[in-house]
Structures are given as structure tokens and as C-alpha cells.
Amino acid sequence: MPTFNRAEAQRRLDADDGDPEDLVIPVGEPGQKNCYHESTDCGHVVRTIGSVDDSDRQTRSEAQRQGYVPCKQCVLDTYSLEGSQALRLQLEDPEVTSADDIDWEAV
Ligand SMILES: [Zn+2]
Predict the structure, then answer these.
(1) What is the CA(93)–ligand 1 centre distance, in A?
(2) Which parts of this chain are annotated as the region Disordered (predicted)?
(3) What is the reported pTM?
(4) What spacing in Å lies between the alpha carbon of 4 and ligand 1's midpoint?
(5) Tell me: the pLDDT tens digits for 49-74?
(6) pLDDT classification of 82: cutoffs 50, 70, 90
(7) Radius of gyration (Cα) for the chain, nearest Å?
(8) What is the 24 CA–ligand 1 centroid distance (Å)?
């Protein structure tokens, strides 16, 4: 696991191309950076808050403004898709600093 730092947070934010007005689920996870999630079934959501109701949701832009970063699993899908390994390796590459640097064809 790469250490979570500011650069990693920025890489994740850049990799999230979702609609800023979409509702996401911000979750404060003990001992970790706070992440926002898109899936109510995401393991992090289930473990931390259990069932989700509407008051748990905020827009993506509001969650980002409050310092939440995208969940790797349900927002960025870096572990669940066929191309997950390719994307994960690119996200860990120091040369990749924004979504524009990612070779999405390889993902
Ligand atoms: Zn998640």
C-alpha cells in the first residue's frame, strides 16, 4: 500500500471524472483519510455506517470541498474492473499527476 499523502489525494481527485452534482456518501473512517463513496454496498460504507439514508448523502463537489477523497473501490473502481491493475499502476506512477496523464485505453 502506498502511503496516503496529499499527492495521492490529488491523484484520486483527478481520477474521479464523475458529475460534481451527483450525490455521494462521505464517510469518516477511523485512522484513515475520509473518503466519499458511490455505492451503498461498498465495504467501507457498510462497516462504518451500516445502512445509508438520504441525510448521509452530499453532492460530490461539496464532499470534495470538505476534504473527502474518492473511494478507491466504488468511485474509482481500481480494484473491481478488468483493467484495475493497469489503472492502479498508473495512479502510483509519480509522472501521472492528473486524469489527462492516464492512458485510459490501457485501463
Ligand atoms: Zn467505497
Answers:
(1) 22
(2) 1-21
(3) 0.66
(4) 16
(5) 888 999 999 999 999 999 999 998 88
(6) low
(7) 13
(8) 10
- Say how far apart CA 6 and CA 28 lie, in whole Å: 17
The label of the residue with cell 457498510 reads 46
Contact 34, 26 (CB under 8 A): yes
Q: How far away, in angstroms, is 35 Cα from ligand 1 center?
A: 8
Q: Which residue reads 480494484 in cell numbers?
A: 79
CA–centroid distance, residue 39 to ligand 1 (Å): 6
How far is ligand 1, taken at its centre, from the CA of residue 73, in Å?
Answer: 5
Q: How far is CA 11 from CA 35, 52, 55, 104, in A?
A: 13, 27, 28, 14
Is it the case that residue 92 has pLDDT exceeding 90?
no
How far from each other are the two terminal CA atoms of the chain, in whole angstroms? 20
HSE-up of residue 59 (Cα within 13 Å, Cβ side):
6
Domain spans in the chain, listed from the N-terminal domain onward: 6-93
User: SS3 breakdown of the chain: % helix, strand, coil, rounded to 5?
Assistant: 40, 10, 50
